Amino acid sequence: MTQRDAPTAEGPPGQRLRDAVARERPLQVPGVINAYCALLAERAGFGALYLSGAGVANASFGWPDLGYTTLEDVAEDARRVTQATALPLLVDADTGFDDPGAAANALIDAGVAGMHLEDQVEQKRCGHRPGKQLVPAEAMCERVRAAVRARKDPAFVVMARTDAHAVEGLDAAIDRAVSYVGAGADMIFAEALATLDEFRRFVDTVRVPVLANITEFGKTPGFTVDELRGAGVGLALYPLSAFRAMSFAATQTYAALRRDGTQRAVLDQMQTRDQLYDVLRYHDHEQRLDQQLKHEGATDG
Using CB atoms within 10 A of its CB, is residue 74 exposed (0-12), middle (13-18) or buried (19+)? Predict the structure, then answer.
């Protein structure tokens, strides 16, 4: 079977992510749940991608995002994305899977550009749900230090996420973020902030790129890129936007099939066969396979 062309790009993935952050402020980072979604996001013109821990748990396993998935689960989904596109991929590494250094190197081996670690306890919760519990700041600093010390590619991005705003308040969250930067974090993920002024305070204090998680139906309003740029935000994350839309469309399609006994009512909501083939470069692969089979036939003859 003919394999897809390996993606090509200059420089290690981590450096490409750093360059993308420097080039586009804020860098829009859409979540992708699989390799095909990565191709669609690339076609839309994005400069980086994201693999959500919730996306792995929800889409690949049908589980809630409650720390059930393993490093191997996440690395496998990440590898499929990086084999499909050269866009740098940021990955949710939860609390580090008991060994942040091993997590960093497993993701580097999978072609990932960076990961974020969080300061929740190992049995973590969604960042926009109640009941979150945090580890002490020093314990999180050790997670960061372990990842930074162990990473075999110094360009690999180690981002520290803090969930402290919802638990301890804004000042404590900023203090934690400052300590995480001191421990070696390259960027900060400020989870569940509610106002642009709060983002400004983070940006003004931590002095490294700050990520805003613009997830739907959560604590953070759907700020525009212009609003985030005005607050100095470095990255705007949309972790599950496409997945939510895809899931709603699938729900509507299944309902129509069951109700009507035909898909006619939802055909105009579907990607066509030609559109699918165009994204996959199907005809190029088909021609290459035909040539390969013709060559093998001539050789056998």
Answer: buried
DSSP state of 86: -
Asked if 130 and 142 count as a contact pair (C-beta separation under 8 A), the reply is: no
Q: Which residues are known to be catalytic?
A: 50, 65, 92, 94, 116, 118, 126, 161, 191, 213
Burial 17-33 (b: 16+ CB within 10 A, else e): bbbbbeebebbbbbbbb
Neighbours of 236 (CB within 10 A): 22
Sign of the Cα pseudo-torsion (219, 224, 225, 231, in order): negative
What are the structure tokens assigned to 111, written together? 């072609």
CA distance 240 to 43: 18
Alpha-carbon distances of 41 from 3, 195, 232, 283, rounded to whole Å: 21, 28, 24, 21
pLDDT tens profile 133-188: 899 999 999 999 999 999 999 999 999 999 999 899 999 999 999 999 999 999 99
What CA–CA distance (Å, rounded) separates 29 from 126?
19
Instruction: Provide the H-helix boundaries in the chain.
Output: 13-23, 35-44, 53-55, 71-82, 100-109, 137-150, 164-168, 170-182, 196-206, 225-230, 241-260, 273-280, 282-300
Using DSSP bridges, classify how beta strands 187-190 and 157-162 pair: parallel, antiparallel or unpaired. parallel
First-to-last CA distance in the chain? Answer: 21
| Share of the chain residues as helix, strand and coil, in percent rounded to the nearest 5 | 50, 10, 35
162 three-state secondary structure: strand
Return the pLDDT at 292. Answer: 85
Instruction: Compute the residue count for the chain.
Output: 301
How far apart CA 266 and CA 259 sit, in angstroms, is 12
What residue spans of 151-240 are helical by DSSP H? 164-168, 170-182, 196-206, 225-230
